[in-house]
Amino acid sequence: MKRRSIAADLRPVVAEAEAAGWRLVAGRRHPRLVSPRGRLVVLPATPSDYRAARNARAQVRRVIREEADGLPAPA
Predict the structure, then answer these.
(1) Bridge partners, residue 43, by sequence
(2) Taking the domains of the chain in order of start, what are their residue ranges?
(3) Do residues 4 and 31 make contact, with C-beta atoms less than 8 angstroms apart?
(4) Which DSSP string do the residues of 12-69 spell out, in sequence order?
(5) In b/e form, how buried is each residue of 3-35, taking b as 16+ CB within 10 angstroms?
(6) How many C-beta atoms lie closer than 10 Å to residue 75's C-beta?
(7) Contact status, residue 7 vs residue 47, Cβ threshold 8 Å
(8) Predicted confidence band at 54 (pLDDT cuts at 50, 70, 90)?
């Protein structure tokens, strides 16, 4: 995918996820991370909250943990 400008705060989160096999996909308004099993984590396009990167990293880790435990994707 052609990279849109990802906020500097979120670049380490994206790099960490891509190293774990995730893909970065351009959404219409927000970039999305897609896990190897197809689960989505939507990233903020312009994170105005100082916790945005921390929250995104927590969401990615939560999905990784749920997939490792074999939990089904939420409906």
Answers:
(1) none
(2) 11-68
(3) yes
(4) HHHHHHHHTT-EEE--SSS-EEE-TTS-EEEPPSS--STTHHHHHHHHHHHHHHHHHH
(5) eeebbebbeebbeebeeeebebeeeeeebebeb
(6) 3
(7) yes
(8) very high
Per-residue tokens: 13 = 């989160």
The model's pTM is 0.80
pLDDT value at 56 more than 90: yes
The answer to whether 26 and 34 have CB atoms below 8 angstroms apart is no
Report the distance separating Cα 23 and Cα 36, nearest Å: 8
Provide the 8-state DSSP code for 11. Answer: H
